[in-house]
């Protein structure tokens, strides 16, 4: 009660994107439970410009900074406010929370909660009955009757105590049963007619009801933990309050979101039968294969992912899928519809991050440790633009365990930067294509070769290993990445767990680095990609490090794809380079001597990778393995692509089941497990060391 005094003062209020933040005079009326604001203090005697009822409101300090907080009223209206400092924010937040709690409890005492709700589906009858025939003006939601059972007059329900959690669980079980009946009734509707099981309103109703029940289950779980903490005095050690695992099993037989019924084996295309009948891995050679660079030809494929129509046409499929997902759910084992796939494997996507081999090779040409670290940061930040194909957020194929991808790049030695602060955009894209064609007539000493190999070393969890080397410059990079994807509501987040190691053997330096998270946003409309999170690059020998922040777009204002970073010398804590800009557009580097350099990534030259033709590739190499899926996607035949994709996935499941039954461990081909990571079986640092020892012996 001591804290229930009325308070007032100036706060900044966010109005809209045009007007932005404006100073307003706010008054907390504790007696009425209102938050009011005026243009200024002088107009306080006039009618308030705005008023929020605080009963049932949620007061939330913002993660954006230490000054901002939001007031979310039960009506759905929201005030986004900003105090002058953290102390003032805490003062307002605490007073608002006390007032909110007081008036919320008062309403709860005067208005006991409803005892239950019932959901019933209108009688369907036959396909021609009035219950099924829907008038054009009748929407799907009105097809369902939602009723409330009021308590008998005079009876009051006491305020719920922790002991009543058993009753709550029973009521929730009833609600879950009714929700399952609702889902079953929708799915039993005919697939054609005025009201179908794929009606967008009904799919949205399925998704909403599913999300509601999942949210209630999570809230109940938190209540149980709080009850346990009250009994024991505190939460048990190690206890966390987080999203629960999904209780609803997902079907593994999605065909654009619907159940698949495939034709008999005799009617399947020969390519599908071939995919399913490929021999077990134990019958295939798992010995490392030496790839002859002379067999590789310049890649001429150009699979841009700019087709937005398919996503919009498949909106009902996405809704169907969303109705079976829950916030925070791991999507590793979820079979996603085929139309969202891009026409390449994840292993090839990692290769495309190496599309600027000139910048990669130029790292070791730096004359000082500082220059080499800066060059690595420049290369690192320019790699993501080409790694993404097109603006639309599509997903690469999930690699099959044992799948591999090989390629290489040839780079004229004259095009590799040797001087400090060289020009990052020495050639345009058109000039680069001409240069790469001229390489065919050059001798071996005229160009550097960068070789790349990637392998899917694990299925659960999905872990990829990749390795690249330039023998002439005695440099290589080894990395392993575990992709963890989660459903975040209207977006999907992918965390890249793992670590990379760049070795510059000429200098005896090793650089460790990590990868940012990726997000597919607006998955119900036109999905787009953004990167987020903080990554670090460190060189223990030289004491130089880099910290890079990929900024996700804030809810209000802000730029897309923004990135900032700095390179520093850890011993002296001196910043030697700063970078800012967009990772898919223009980057600006500012050096310690005051000089600046801008890099337009859209004009940066791209060196085409060299890949062996399909007929020379092994059965588990990415392009040959996924060739029928890729061809079907190019032809726009989603059903056929789905069939080929399912055949590959079914084969992988059968092989995994066979290995489990025979207790046969999976043997990798190119990468070996070392601790928590995976290392290429013949890295350059081992071969160079072996040669050095042999020379010393001779």
UniProtKB/TrEMBL annotation:
Keyword Cell wall biogenesis/degradation: no
Domain of life: Eukaryota
Keyword presence, Transport: yes
Keywords: Acetylation, Endosome, Golgi apparatus, Lipid transport, Lipid-binding, Membrane, Transport
GO annotation, biological process: lipid transport
UniProt region (Disordered), positions on chain: 104-136, 271-302, 637-659
Polar residues bias spans: 117-136
A GO molecular-function descriptor: sterol binding
Pfam families in UniProt: Oxysterol_BP (PF01237), PH (PF00169)
Primary localization class, coarse: membrane
Biased composition (Acidic residues): 290-302
Localisation per UniProt entry: Endomembrane system; Endosome; Golgi apparatus
Residues of the PH domain: 4-101
A GO cellular-component term linked to this record: cytosol
InterPro entries: OSBP_sf (IPR037239), Oxysterol-bd (IPR000648), Oxysterol-bd_CS (IPR018494), PH-like_dom_sf (IPR011993), PH_domain (IPR001849)
TM segment ranges: none
Gene3D superfamilies found in the cross-reference section: 1.10.287.2720, 2.40.160.120, 6.10.140.1150, Pleckstrin-homology domain (PH domain)/Phosphotyrosine-binding domain (PTB)
Reported function: Plays a role in regulating ADIPOQ and FABP4 levels in differentiating adipocytes and is also involved in regulation of adipocyte triglyceride storage. Weakly binds 25-hydroxycholesterol. Interacts with OSBPL9 to function as lipid transfer proteins.
Family statement drawn from the similarity comment of this UniProt entry: Belongs to the OSBP family.
PANTHER family for the chain: OXYSTEROL-BINDING PROTEIN-RELATED, OXYSTEROL-BINDING PROTEIN-RELATED PROTEIN 11
Assembly and oligomerization: Heterodimer with OSBPL9.
Name of the protein this chain belongs to: Oxysterol-binding protein
Organism (species): Geococcyx californianus (Greater roadrunner)
Gene: Osbpl11
């Amino acid at each position: 009660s001591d804290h229930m005094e009325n308070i007032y003062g100036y706060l900044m209020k966010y109005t809209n994107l045009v007007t932005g933040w404006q100073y307003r005079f706010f008054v907390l009326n504790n007696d009425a439970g209102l938050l009011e604001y005026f243009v200024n203090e002088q107009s306080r005697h006039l009618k308030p410009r705005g008023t929020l009822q605080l009963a049932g409101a949620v007061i939330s300090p913002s993660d954006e900074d230490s000054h901002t907080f939001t007031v979310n009223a039960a009506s759905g209206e929201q005030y986004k406010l900003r105090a002058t400092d953290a102390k003032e924010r805490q003062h307002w937040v605490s007073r608002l929370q006390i007032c909110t709690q007081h008036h919320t409890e008062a309403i709860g005492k005067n208005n006991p909660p409803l005892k239950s709700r019932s959901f019933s589906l209108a009688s369907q009858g036959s396909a021609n009955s009035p219950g099924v025939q829907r008038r054009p003006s009748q929407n799907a939601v009105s097809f369902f009757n939602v009723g409330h059972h009021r308590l008998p007059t005079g009876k009051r329900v006491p305020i719920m105590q922790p002991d009543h959690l058993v009753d709550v669980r029973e009521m929730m079980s009833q609600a879950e049963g009714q929700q399952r009946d609702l889902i079953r009734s929708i799915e039993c509707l005919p697939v054609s007619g005025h009201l179908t099981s794929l009606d967008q309103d009904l799919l949205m109703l399925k998704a909403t009801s599913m999300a509601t029940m999942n949210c209630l289950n999570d809230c109940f779980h938190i209540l149980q933990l709080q009850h346990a903490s009250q009994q024991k005095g505190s939460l048990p050690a190690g206890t966390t309050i987080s999203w629960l695992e999904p209780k609803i099993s997902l079907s593994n037989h999605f065909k654009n979101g619907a159940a698949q019924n495939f034709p008999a084996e005799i009617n399947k295309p020969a390519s599908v039968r071939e995919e399913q009948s490929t021999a077990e891995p134990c019958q295939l050679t798992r010995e490392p294969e030496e790839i002859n660079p002379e067999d590789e030809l310049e890649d001429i494929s150009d699979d841009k992912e700019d087709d937005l129509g398919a996503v919009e046409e498949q909106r009902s499929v996405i809704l169907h899928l969303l109705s079976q997902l829950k916030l925070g759910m791991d999507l590793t084992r979820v079979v996603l519809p085929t139309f969202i796939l891009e026409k390449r494997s994840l292993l090839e996507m990692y290769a495309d991050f190496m599309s600027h081999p000139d910048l990669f090779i130029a790292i070791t040409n730096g004359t000082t440790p500082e220059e080499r670290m800066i060059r690595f940061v420049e290369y690192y930040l320019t790699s993501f633009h080409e790694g993404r194909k097109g603006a639309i957020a599509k997903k690469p194929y999930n690699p099959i365990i044992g799948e591999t991808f090989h390629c290489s790049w040839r780079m004229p030695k004259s095009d590799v930067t040797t001087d400090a602060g060289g020009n990052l955009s020495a050639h345009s894209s058109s000039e680069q294509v001409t240069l790469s064609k001229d390489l065919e007539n050059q001798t071996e000493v005229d160009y550097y070769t960068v070789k790349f190999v990637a392998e899917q070393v694990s299925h659960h969890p999905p872990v990829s290993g990749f390795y690249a080397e330039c023998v002439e410059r005695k440099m290589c990079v080894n990395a392993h990445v575990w992709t963890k994807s989660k459903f975040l509501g209207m977006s999907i987040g992918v965390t890249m767990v793992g670590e990379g190691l760049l070795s510059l053997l000429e200098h005896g330096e090793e650089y460790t680095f990590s990868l940012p998270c990726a997000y597919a946003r607006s998955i119900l409309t036109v999905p787009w990609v953004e990167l987020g999170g903080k990554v670090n690059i460190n060189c223990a020998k030289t004491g130089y490090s880099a910290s890079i922040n990929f900024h996700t777009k804030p809810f209000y204002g802000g730029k897309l794809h923004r990135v900032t970073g700095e390179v520093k010398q850890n011993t002296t804590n001196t910043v030697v380079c700063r970078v800012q800009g967009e990772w898919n557009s223009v980057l600006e580097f500012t050096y310690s001597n005051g000089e600046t350099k801008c890099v337009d990534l859209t004009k940066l030259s791209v060196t085409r990778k060299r890949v062996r033709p399909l007929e020379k590739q092994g059965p588990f190499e990415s392009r040959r393995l996924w060739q029928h899926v890729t061809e079907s996607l190019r032809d726009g035949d989603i059903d056929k692509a789905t069939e080929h994709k399912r055949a590959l996935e079914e084969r992988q499941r059968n092989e995994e089941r066979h290995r489990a039954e025979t207790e046969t461990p999976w043997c990798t081909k190119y990468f070996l497990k070392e601790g928590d990571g995976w290392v290429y079986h013949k890295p350059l640092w081992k071969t160079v060391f072996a040669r050095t020892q042999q020379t010393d012996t001779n």
